[in-house]
């Protein structure tokens, strides 16, 4: 099946062929098809040369050519009415425990999302599944709900969840805690960047769910704190990203230490050759469910901001962020160093900004994320890796301050806005040469 977001807007609603500019056509940030069309209100001090790449977007970026730049705009989207998704099931239909059902209701989830609707029945039957779905589709609950039920019904069942980033692991655990309230079992997070001691102590209590990143899981196994022989179920979340991040050997090693006849759930946004190989090697006749409809989220209004030659894009960004319309903005940079520097430079201009990247400790990353979620800071500057899988409600804008490396990265970036029923805006800075 191929179904879009469960409560998507039609492509028409998010900007048809003659889509107005993202700010009604009057903003000074309106992308101007003529080069040099950007008008800056006023300069902010000395140009910060370190933020200007030598070539457009830096080395190996997507968006080097005009044809690629066109992909950052959705003006040419054909207006089509997407059918409203009608789920086959209600949560009350699923064969899951009453207490768990109540916890799901308490989360105010009215009906299952497409991935939940299709996958939950198969997972409840113990079948291996492949879910081709991105963050934002409700995939986390699609595996957590049936697996919590499994833990309740099969005494001693233990579940391993592997995720590419610390933030995603923490997010999964939070969602688990909500669904599992009052059910009497534990889950724990085993990620790097955090002290390993408390994780070792938690493992001594044999938690039913262990949610971790491959590197730390391997470390815990090598220290003999984590023994996977008792785990009958494994979830690989965002498997494609784990491959991109070079976790393939760790993933294979970890899976090889689990029982052969295990229950395997596999989630990925893409289905490349490596992913297919991994599925072939580790899953048993899986049911494949895809909820990807098209590669550009239709609820995201996309455009480019041309930075005229000689103009410093930092000034453009700072100017933009001072506008009230830019209330909760995720800014993407290429490097950990650049991201850190950018957040500091914005803060110096009294623009409340935080950064999130791999050089920060888990605690610092979590604090930055919470500050952004709560609205204490209006801009979060992130690298692609750190932002992957983050569930941040109501991001008003995604700004690609540095070009993404690939179109796929671009799609992941802009997927941070326009989530659920909200309409988001994505702006990509393109430096004129
Ligand atoms: P995920 O794709 O798992 O990251 O989920 C994206 C967001 O959708 C999270 O904030 C979930 O809490 C939310 N969500 C998941 N399932 C549902 C549902 N059935 N109804 C409403 N919201 C949901």
Structure notes:
With about 425 residues, this protein is α/β, with parallel strands linked by helices. The protein folds into two domains: about 1-80 and about 295-433, P-loop containing nucleotide triphosphate hydrolases (Rossmann fold); about 90-290, Rossmann fold (3-Layer(aba) Sandwich), CATH 3.40.50. Helices cover about 35% and strands about 15% of the residues. The protein contains 15 helices and 13 strands. The strands form two sheets. A seven-stranded parallel sheet has the order 3-4-2-5-6-1-7, with helices on both faces. A six-stranded parallel sheet has the order 8-13-12-9-11-10, with helices on both faces. α3 (about 115-125) packs parallel to α4 and α4 crosses α5 (about 165-180). The model is unreliable at about 1-60 and about 75-80 (pLDDT under 50). Adenosine monophosphate (AMP) binds near residues 113 and 137. Adenosine monophosphate binds near residues 112, 113, 140 and 141.
Task: Please outline the helices and strands.
Blueprint: H1 66-70, H2 98-106, H3 114-124, E1 129-132, H4 139-153, E2 159-162, H5 166-179, E3 187-190, H6 196-203, E4 209-212, H7 214-222, E5 233-236, H8 239-244, H9 248-256, E6 263-268, H10 273-282, E7 287-290, E8 300-307, H11 313-321, E9 329-332, H12 336-348, E10 353-356, H13 362-374, E11 379-382, H14 384-387, E12 397-400, H15 407-414, E13 424-431
Parallel strand pairs: 1-6, 1-7, 2-4, 2-5, 3-4, 5-6, 8-13, 9-11, 9-12, 10-11, 12-13
The structure holds adenosine monophosphate (AMP).
Adenosine monophosphate binds at residues 109, 112-113, 116, 135-141, 391.
């Amino acid at each position: 099946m191929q179904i879009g977001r469960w409560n998507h807007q039609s492509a028409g609603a998010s900007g048809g062929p003659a889509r107005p500019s993202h700010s009604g056509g009057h903003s000074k940030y309106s992308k101007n098809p003529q080069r040099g069309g950007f008008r800056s209100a006023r300069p902010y001090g000395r140009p910060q040369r370190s933020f200007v790449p030598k070539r457009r977007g830096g080395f190996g970026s997507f968006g080097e050519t005009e044809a690629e730049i066109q992909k950052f705009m959705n003006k040419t989207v054909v207006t089509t009415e997407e059918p409203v998704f009608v789920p086959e099931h209600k949560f009350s239909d699923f064969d899951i425990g009453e207490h768990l059902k109540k916890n799901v209701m308490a989360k105010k989830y009215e009906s299952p999302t497409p991935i939940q609707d299709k996958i939950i029945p198969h997972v409840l039957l113990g079948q291996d599944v492949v879910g081709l779905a991105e963050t934002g589709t409700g995939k986390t609950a699609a595996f957590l709900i049936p697996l919590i039920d499994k833990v309740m019904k099969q005494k001693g069942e233990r579940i391993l969840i592997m995720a590419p980033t610390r933030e995603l692991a923490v997010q999964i655990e939070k969602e688990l805690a909500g669904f599992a309230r009052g059910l009497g079992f534990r889950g724990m997070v085993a990620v790097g960047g955090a002290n390993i001691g408390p994780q070792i102590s938690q493992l001594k209590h044999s938690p039913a769910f262990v949610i971790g990143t491959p590197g730390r899981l391997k470390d815990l196994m090598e220290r003999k704190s984590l023994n996977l022989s008792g785990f009958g179920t494994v979830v690989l979340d965002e498997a494609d990203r784990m491959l991109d991040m070079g976790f393939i050997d760790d993933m294979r090693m970890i899976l090889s230490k689990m029982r052969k006849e295990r229950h395997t759930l596999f989630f990925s946004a893409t289905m490349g050759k490596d992913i297919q190989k991994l599925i072939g090697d580790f899953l048993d006749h899986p049911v494949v469910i895809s909820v990807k409809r098209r590669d550009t989220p239709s609820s995201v209004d996309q455009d480019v901001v041309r930075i005229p030659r000689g103009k410093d894009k930092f000034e453009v960004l700072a100017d933009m962020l001072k506008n009230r319309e830019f209330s909760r903005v995720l800014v993407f940079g290429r490097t950990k160093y650049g991201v850190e520097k950018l957040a500091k430079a914005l803060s110096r201009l009294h623009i409340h900004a935080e950064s999130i990247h791999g050089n920060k400790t888990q605690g610092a990353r979590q604090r930055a994320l919470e500050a952004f979620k709560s609205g204490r800071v209006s801009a979060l500057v992130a690298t692609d890796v750190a932002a992957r899988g983050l569930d941040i409600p109501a991001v008003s804008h995604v700004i690609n301050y540095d070009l993404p490396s690939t179109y796929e990265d671009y799609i992941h970036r802009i997927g941070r806005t326009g989530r659920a029923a909200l309409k988001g805006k994505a702006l990509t800075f393109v430096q004129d040469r």
